[in-house]
Amino acid sequence: MNWSHSSRWTTLAVVAILAFAAVGTATAVEVASEDVPAEGQVDADYTATVTLGELYQNPDYTSWTLRGETELEDVTWTVTTTDTDTGNQIDSQSFDGQSFNYSNIDAEANDANQITVEVTGTVPDVENFSYAEEETFVVAELTQVREGGTSNEISTTTAHHYTDGSKEARQAISSAEDAIEQAESAGGDVAAAQESYDTAVAFYNEGSFDNAISQAESAVSKAEDAEKAAASAQSRNQLLMYGGAAIVVLLLVGGGIYWYRQQQDDYSRLG
């Protein structure tokens, strides 16, 4: 195969891939807007809303079912369809439980071109605490399902969940991070502070938040001590530098005076 023939096939392949990607983007159901709180406390009430548009862009999905799933507990879903051209509400249904299926989405049967999904429940427990990767739960996973079983994922929204203890510990560890970074920037030896910080993170991951807070506070104290020591050393070095400069000046002045007097003595002897 010569180079021009190979190049032609490569070009066609790239065009095909780009065309496929463009079609995939154009035919997807659109997430028009979201009102999803970024975090929630365990066992507290939580409400989120997701609005979908471009419902029939995929020609294979002119009649389909919307499936929703969540990790919230004691859940109620409210699904509302609207004709945005006229502003008329087409339908509204409620579902209880951590999943639902809403099937009244049909391009020929009604004029709905927008779906609003509201999910209300309580924030679930945190199964595993991890400081490095913020703990999250699934607020709403929405899927487009066609008769026959084929499906497309529309969107998955998540949020951070926490307890009183985990939130306080996370804030304490974050403060320790800032203190260590500041001390290190000042030239301080932060090894001891870093050790306490690492211990605090380990306690956090175990769910031992009181110990995590204590170690984080220790890390802050050690970082502040390191920063003060660095500042003191810097001041001492500056004093030594200034003192050395002063000695040099005195030596130069003294040497100049001595030289001047020697010159005067020489002139006196010559006279």
Structure description:
This protein is of the alpha+beta class and 271 residues long. The protein has two domains: 31-162, Immunoglobulin-like (Sandwich); 166-262. Helix content is 46%, strand content 31%. The protein has four helices and ten strands; from the N terminus they run αββββββββββααα. The protein has a five-stranded antiparallel β-sheet, with no helix packed on it. Strand 9 and strand 10 (151-162) form a beta hairpin. Helix 2 runs antiparallel to helix 3 (191-206). The radius of gyration is 35 Å and the shape is elongated. Residues 1-26 have low confidence and may be disordered.
**Number of structural units classed as domains:** 2
State the CATH topology of the largest domain.
Immunoglobulin-like
Oligomer: single chain
Number of strands: 10
Radius of gyration: 35 Å
- The dominant shape is elongated
Strand content: 25-35%
Query: Topology as H/E string?
Result: HEEEEEEEEEEHHH
Characterize the largest beta sheet: strand count, sense, and whether it forms a barrel: 5 strands, antiparallel
Alpha-beta content class: alpha+beta
So, CATH architecture of the largest domain?
A: Sandwich
What is the CA-CA span between the terminal residues? 107 Å
Q: Mean of residue pLDDT?
A: 84
CATH class of the largest domain: Mainly Beta
What is the count of DSSP helices, taking H or I runs of 4+ residues? Answer: 4
Put the structure in a nutshell:
The chain has four helices and ten strands; from the N terminus they run H-E-E-E-E-E-E-E-E-E-E-H-H-H.
Which labels suit this protein?
271 residues; alpha+beta; 5-stranded antiparallel sheet; elongated
